[in-house]
Write a structure and sequence with these properties.
The chain is α/β, with parallel strands linked by helices. The protein folds into four domains: about 1-95 and about 285-310, NAD(P)-binding Rossmann-like Domain (Rossmann fold), CATH 3.40.50; about 100-275, Rossmann fold, CATH 3.40.50.720; about 315-450, D-3-phosphoglycerate dehydrogenase, domain 3 (60s Ribosomal Protein L30, Chain: A, 2-Layer Sandwich), CATH 3.30.1330; about 455-525, Alpha-Beta Plaits (2-Layer Sandwich). Helix content is about 35%, strand content about 25%. The protein has helices at about 15-20, 35-40, 55-60, 80-85, 100-115, 115-125, 150-160, 175-180, 190-195, 215-220, 240-245, 265-270, 285-305, 320-345, 365-380, 390-395, 465-475, 505-515, and strands at about 1-5, 25-30, 45-50, 70, 90, 145, 165-170, 185, 200, 225-230, 250-255, 275, 350-355, 400-405, 410-420, 425-430, 435-440, 445-450, 455-460, 480-490, 495-500, 520-525. A hairpin with a 2-residue loop joins β17 (about 435-440) and β18. α14 runs parallel beside α15 (about 365-380). The relative contact order is 0.09. The mean pLDDT is about 95. The structure holds nicotinamide-adenine-dinucleotide and 3-phosphoglyceric acid. 3-phosphoglyceric acid binds near residues 73, 74 and 75. It comes from Lederbergia graminis. Pfam families: 2-Hacid_dh, 2-Hacid_dh_C, ACT, PGDH_inter.
Length: about 525
C-alpha cells in the first residue's frame, strides 16, 4: 500500500484514479504549516502540491519514505529539486495541462483593463452610477505585443486575433515561418515597445527575464500602453511599473503574479489603474482536474510499472548501468548549460556525438539531459527529461545524435555543437579516471577545465602579457582565480583563456576586461549548484 499526501487544494475529481486504486491511500491535508509537514512527511511515499507548499531541503530531510513529489501544475519553484534529486526522489509536473486556463485569464485581464470592469463593478455595486468615469478602449485594430510565444503566448495570440488585433510576437525560438503560419508578425522587444498598445508577458522567470520590463524598457514603450502579466512575478520590476503608472507612461496594468506571493505591495495592489488577481491563472475546474488527473496517473505508473512520463529531475539511481552512466548524465547537464550560454541565443540545430566506449552504451538519458539543459535556458520548468526532445522538435530545432567508436584521445568523449544561422558554440568533454569531469574543448579550442560554478571565457590575441593583464584586472575587482587555462590554434594567432573563479562577476568586470588591448571578447559562464554533483 502506498500513502499519498495531498498538501494543497487539489481537485478530487482529478485525483479519482488514486482514490479508486486499491494500492493507494490518499490523505488530503491542505495548508499544513512547515513544522506539521515535517512531522508527518516520513509516513508518505508520494506528495502532491501546487505552488503554495514550500518543499524545502529541511522538510525533505524528514521524508525518509518519499519517492515522488508531484507538482499539479508547471512551476517547481516551490520545490527544492536539487535536494530531492540528492535524496533519490523523482519530481514530476504537468506542463500544458493549465495552458488554456492561463490564456483565458490573460484575455479576461486584457478586457478588464480595456473596459475598467473591476473598478466599474466596485463603483456600481456600491450604489453609484458613474457612466462617465469608466470610458474604455476597444481591442479592435489595436496592436498586442506578446513576449514569450510558447504554449500560453500562442493561445493568447490566437484569441486576440479573433478580436481583430494586430499581433507582434517576440520569442527566441519564434521563426518567421511559424509567425507567418500563425498570422502574426515576428518582432523584437524594442519593436514591441515602440508599437504595442497592449503588452502581455508569457515567458518563464529565468535569469534572462528577471526584470525584463524595467525602467529602461518602460521608457521605450508607447505612452499609454497597457501591460498584462499572468506569467511569473519578477519579470516586471514592480517599483518601475508603479513609477510608470504614476507618470501616465503606462495607462494600466493587469497582474496575476507578483515578485513575492502573497503580495504585500499595497502601492501596486491598490493603484487605481491596476487590476489584480491572486495567482488564479490555473484556478479553473478544468485545469485543476487536468493537472490532478495527469499527476495521479503518473504516480500510479511510477509505482506500478516504474515508468516515468514527466520527470523534472533524474535522481541518482542505483543499478550498474545507471551508476556507470550517472557521471556522464551530469556531464551532459553541464555541457548543455555551457553551450547554450556560449551561443547566447536559441539554437536552430543541435549536434551531439558520443565517441569511444560511451558510443557502445545506451546514451539516451545523456542525450535527454543535454537537450533538457539547453532548452531550460529559455523554457525553465516547462521542459523535463521526458518532453525535452519533443519540445526541441516543437521549437523547430533540428538535431543530430551520432556515435563513433573512435577514441578521440579519451576512453569516452562527448562533443556538443549548437548552431544558430552562422553562429556556432561547441563543447567537448570527458571523464578522466580518478580526476572527474573535464571540459577539453571550447569553441574548437583545446582546453582542460574542470566544470565549476563560475567560469570566465576569454578570446584574445596570442601576445605576451595577456595572462598577467587579465589576472591583475580581476584582482582589481577582488575576484580570485581558481585555475587558468590557455589554448591557441597557432602561435601569435587567436587564443582562448578559460578561468575558474571563486565568485560570479558583474557586467562591469566584463566591460573592464574587454577594454584590455588585444582582448577580443569576455563572457561569464555559470553552472548552478545542482549541476555540480559531489562526484565531479
Ligand atoms: N498565472 C498562472 O497561474 C500560470 C499558469 C500557467 C503557467 N504560468 C506561467 O506562464 C508562463 C508561460 O508558460 P507556458 O506554458 O506558455 O511556457 P512555455 O515554455 O510553453 O513558453 C514560454 C516561452 O517563453 C520563451 N522565452 C524564454 N525566454 C524569453 C525571453 N527572454 N523573451 C521572450 N520569450 C522568451 C520561450 O522560448 C518559450 O517559448 C510561465 O512563466 C508559466 O510558469 C502561469
Ligand atoms: O506554475 C503553474 O502551474 C501556475 O503558476 C499555477 O500555479 P497553481 O497550481 O498554484 O495555481
Amino acid at each position: 500500500m502506498y500513502k499519498v499526501l495531498v498538501a494543497d487544494a487539489i481537485s478530487d475529481t482529478g485525483l479519482k484514479a488514486l482514490y479508486d486504486h486499491p494500492n493507494y491511500v490518499v490523505d488530503k491535508n491542505p495548508g499544513l504549516a512547515p513544522d506539521a509537514l515535517k512531522e508527518i512527511i516520513k509516513e508518505y511515499d508520494a506528495l502532491i502540491v501546487r505552488s503554495q507548499t514550500q518543499v524545502t531541503a529541511d522538510i525533505l530531510e524528514h521524508a525518509s519514505n518519499l519517492r515522488v513529489i508531484a507538482r499539479a501544475g508547471v512551476g517547481v519553484d516551490n520545490i527544492d529539486v536539487n535536494a530531492a534529486t540528492k535524496k533519490g526522489i523523482i519530481v514530476i509536473n504537468a506542463p500544458g495541462a493549465n495552458t488554456i486556463s492561463a490564456a483565458e485569464l490573460t484575455m479576461a485581464m486584457m478586457l478588464s483593463l480595456a473596459r475598467n470592469i473591476p473598478h466599474a463593478h466596485a463603483s456600481t455595486s456600491a450604489g453609484k452610477w458613474e457612466r462617465n468615469n469608466f470610458k474604455g478602449v476597444e481591442l479592435y485594430e489595436k496592436t498586442l505585443g506578446v513576449i514569450g510565444m510558447g504554449k500560453i503566448g500562442s493561445e493568447v495570440a490566437k484569441r486576440a486575433k479573433s478580436f481583430g488585433m494586430n499581433i507582434l510576437g517576440y520569442d527566441p525560438y519564434l521563426t518567421e515561418d511559424r509567425a507567418g503560419e500563425m498570422g502574426i508578425t515576428k518582432a523584437s522587444l524594442d519593436e514591441i515597445a515602440a508599437e504595442a498598445d497592449f503588452i502581455t508577458i508569457h515567458t518563464p522567470l529565468i535569469k534572462e527575464t528577471r526584470g525584463l520590463v524595467n525602467d529602461d524598457y518602460l521608457a521605450k514603450t508607447k505612452k499609454g500602453v497597457r501591460i498584462i502579466n499572468c506569467a511569473r512575478g519578477g519579470i516586471i520590476d514592480e517599483a518601475a511599473l508603479v513609477r510608470a503608472l504614476n507618470s501616465g507612461q503606462v495607462a494600466g496594468a493587469a497582474l496575476d503574479v507578483y515578485e513575492t506571493e502573497p503580495s504585500t505591495n499595497t502601492e501596486l495592489l491598490s493603484h487605481p489603474n491596476v487590476v489584480v488577481t491572486p495567482h488564479l491563472g490555473a484556478s479553473t475546474v478544468e485545469a485543476q482536474e487536468k493537472v490532478a488527473h495527469e499527476v495521479s496517473e503518473e504516480i500510479i505508473e511510477i509505482f506500478e510499472t516504474q515508468t516515468i512520463r514527466s520527470a523534472v529531475n533524474m535522481p541518482h539511481v542505483s543499478g550498474e548501468t545507471h551508476k556507470k552512466l550517472q557521471p556522464y548524465i551530469d556531464l551532459g547537464d553541464q555541457m548543455g548549460a555551457l553551450a547554450i550560454q556560449l551561443l547566447k541565443e536559441a539554437p536552430d540545430k543541435v549536434e551531439i556525438t558520443y565517441y569511444g566506449q560511451l558510443s557502445k552504451e545506451n546514451t539516451e538519458l545523456i542525450t535527454r539531459t543535454i537537450v533538457k539543459s539547453i532548452l531550460a535556458q529559455h523554457l525553465g520548468d516547462a521542459v523535463n527529461l521526458i518532453n525535452a526532445q519533443h519540445l526541441l522538435k516543437d521549437q523547430g530545432v533540428t538535431s543530430n545524435v551520432s556515435k563513433n567508436p573512435k577514441s578521440k584521445g579519451f576512453a569516452s568523449y562527448i562533443e556538443l555543437t549548437l548552431y544558430r544561422g552562422e553562429a556556432k558554440a561547441n563543447i567537448g568533454a570527458t571523464l578522466l579516471n580518478g580526476y572527474g569531469a573535464r571540459i577539453v574543448k571550447m569553441n574548437d579550442y583545446r582546453v582542460d577545465v574542470r566544470p565549476e560554478p563560475f567560469l570566465l571565457y576569454i578570446k584574445h590575441h596570442d601576445i605576451p602579457g595577456m595572462v598577467g593583464r587579465v589576472g591583475s584586472m580581476l584582482g582589481d575587482y577582488d575576484v580570485n582565480i581558481g585555475t587558468m587555462q590557455v589554448g591557441r590554434s597557432v602561435i601569435g594567432g587567436e587564443a582562448v583563456m578559460v578561468l575558474t573563479l571563486d565568485k560570479a562577476v558583474e557586467p562591469e568586470v566584463i566591460n573592464a576586461l574587454t577594454a584590455i588591448k588585444g582582448l577580443e571578447y569576455a563572457q561569464f559562464l555559470e553552472l548552478t549548484d545542482e549541476k555540480i554533483p559531489v562526484h565531479n
